[in-house]
Every structure is written in structure tokens, then in C-alpha cells.
Design goal:
mainly alpha, 0% strand, Helix Hairpins, 92% helix, 146 residues
Length: 146
């Protein structure tokens, strides 16, 4: 008599769910890293523009050039704020997915433990039946021989 798990389908579903969440989490992490790279580029561009603006101001550059640099720096500052907001949302989504993965993993581990306990109990019960059967056979043989 082979052991057949009643939780195999549920365990399989939990594993599938966990793997799907892991893929989503990895994808979310990729989006977050991409957004952080965009933010870094924006900051670097803004810093370069600020350096150029400082040089033009020190070198008594044309006021039209200075106003263009100033407008660009202000535009970059707005873009940086927008990108920081995007990153904050992505971090929240990432954290939500991470928690979902944690819960899915806990559920799977819990089911695996339950399954292991059931399997152990099944084999213990099987050993007990086998032992009882052997005792009965030995008792009948002893009774027949006497």
C-alpha cells in the first residue's frame, strides 16, 4: 500500500503561487533599479548644468545663456522630484510583493510540515498494523503447535 498525499495538489498550487510571486518580485526589482538609474542620471545632469551655470556666472556670461541654464536646472529639479515619487511608489510595490512572497513561503512551509506529519503518522500506523498482524500470525502458529 503506497502513500498517497491528499495535500499534493494544494502543495503544488502553493509552489506555483510562490514561484509566480518570485517572478513578479524580480520584475519589480528590475523596475526599481531602472528608476534609480534614471534618477542618478537626472542628478548627474543637473549637477553638470549647475557647474556650467556657476562658470557662466563667474565669467560674466550672457544673461540669455544664464537664464537658459537656470530654466534647465529648474526643469531638472521638477523631473528629479517626479522621479523620486515614482521610486517611492515602486519601493512600496516592491515591499508589498516581498511581504506576499514571505506569506506564500510560510504557507508552503506550513503545508509541507503538515504533509510530513501525515506521512510519518501513516507509516507509523502501517508499522503498527504490520506488527499486530505478525503478532497474530505468531499467536496462531503457537496455538496450532500446542
Amino acid at each position: 500500500m503506497a502513500y498517497q498525499s491528499r495535500l499534493a495538489v494544494v502543495l503544488n498550487a502553493r509552489s506555483t503561487k510562490q514561484e509566480a510571486i518570485q517572478r513578479e518580485l524580480a520584475l519589480q526589482k528590475g523596475h526599481l533599479l531602472e528608476a534609480e538609474n534614471v534618477l542618478k542620471k537626472l542628478r548627474d545632469d543637473t549637477e553638470s548644468a549647475m557647474d556650467a551655470l556657476s562658470k557662466h556666472q563667474e565669467g560674466s556670461g550672457k544673461s540669455s545663456e544664464i537664464s537658459l541654464y537656470y530654466a534647465f536646472v529648474q526643469s531638472q529639479a521638477r523631473k528629479i522630484q517626479e522621479q523620486e515619487a515614482v521610486i517611492a511608489k515602486l519601493e512600496d510595490l516592491y515591499e508589498t510583493k516581498r511581504r506576499a512572497l514571505e506569506i506564500a513561503t510560510q504557507e508552503k512551509v506550513m503545508l509541507e510540515k503538515i504533509e510530513e506529519k501525515r506521512k510519518t503518522a501513516y507509516f507509523e500506523k502501517l508499522k503498527k498494523k504490520e506488527s499486530d498482524l505478525l503478532d497474530e500470525v505468531a499467536g496462531q502458529m503457537k496455538w496450532r503447535m500446542s
